[in-house]
Design goal:
The complex is a heterodimer of chains A (113) and B (115).
Chain A: E1 5-7, E2 10-14, E3 19-24, E4 32-37, E5 44-49, E6 55-58, E7 61-65, E8 71-76, E9 85-91, E10 102-103, E11 107-112
Parallel strand pairs in A: 2-11
Antiparallel strand pairs in A: 1-3, 3-8, 4-5, 4-9, 6-7, 7-8, 9-10, 9-11
Chain B: E1 5-7, E2 10-13, E3 19-24, E4 31-37, E5 44-50, E6 53-57, E7 65-68, E8 75-79, E9 88-95, E10 105-106, E11 110-114
Parallel strand pairs in B: 2-11
Antiparallel strand pairs in B: 1-3, 3-8, 4-5, 4-9, 5-6, 7-8, 9-10, 9-11
Classes of the chains: A mainly beta (113), B mainly beta (115).
């Protein structure tokens, strides 16, 4: 059983559309990070959310941390082909080691031109 | 380029052979991590160093796996007597001890294929 469940697993959309991907857990996280990974490369950190209810914006990307710090969402406005990649959420669960990141299995996003 | 580097990028080996991977972290980062990632999954934690000390190891790290960071700079991950199930992407990441949220910076990975 994954500690962090991401949905959907796959998403294919047309350029210009909006989308939201989700990261859910039954455990509380002290913070959650979002990464994007392209084929054959390592994950690249996009943002860290730390406070329950927090919303962070990074250009067309909006990240939200749930009030109870058990879930997070990533919303992309007017998606572009350059947004294509594997989106991963990760964090240290409060009940576990603060030094280990637990990753979800990711959402594979494809934006078609 | 001052990011995390890993060598080799790709390794193909026969079952039973030993392999060694190298990771060079961002120079001022004192924390170093190894992860394994299989197709369609997120990275799974293997082990963690703070400077030269190996402080945590996952139960995924069988006795065929050993990692070192002898001078607190670069690290090596060795897999002995490789098995087909070891085929995966091996990722290295580093971070600063002072970073409260343990934000990690990843290298490009080493793709291992065991035939």
């Amino acid at each position: 059983t994954q500690l962090l469940e991401q949905s959907p697993q796959f998403l294919s959309i047309q350029e210009g559309e909006n989308l939201t991907v989700y990261c859910n857990s039954s455990s509380v996280f002290s913070s959650l990070q979002w990464y994007r990974q392209e084929p054959g490369e390592g994950p690249v950190l996009l943002v860290t959310v730390v406070t329950g209810g927090e919303v962070k914006k990074l250009k067309r990307l909006t990240f939200q941390f749930g009030d109870a710090r058990k879930d997070s969402s990533l919303h992309i406005t007017a998606a572009q082909p350059g947004d294509t990649g594997l989106y991963l959420c990760a964090g240290p669960p409060i009940s576990g080691s603060a030094r280990q990141l637990t990753f979800g299995s990711g959402t594979q996003l494809t934006v078609l031109p | 380029d001052t990011g995390v580097s890993q060598n080799p990028r790709h390794k193909i080996t026969k079952r039973g052979q030993n392999v060694t991977f190298r990771c060079d972290p961002i120079s001022e980062h004192n924390r170093l991590y190894w992860y394994r990632q299989t197709l369609g999954q997120g990275p799974e934690f293997l082990t963690y160093f703070q400077n030269e000390a190996q402080l945590e190891k996952s139960r995924l790290l069988s006795d065929r796996f050993s990692a070192e960071r002898p001078k607190g700079s670069f690290s090596t991950l060795e897999i002995q007597r490789t098995e087909q199930g070891d085929s995966a992407m091996y990722l290295c990441a580093s971070s600063l001890l002072q970073n409260s949220y343990n934000e990690q910076f990843f290298g490009p990975g080493t793709r291992l294929t065991v035939l």
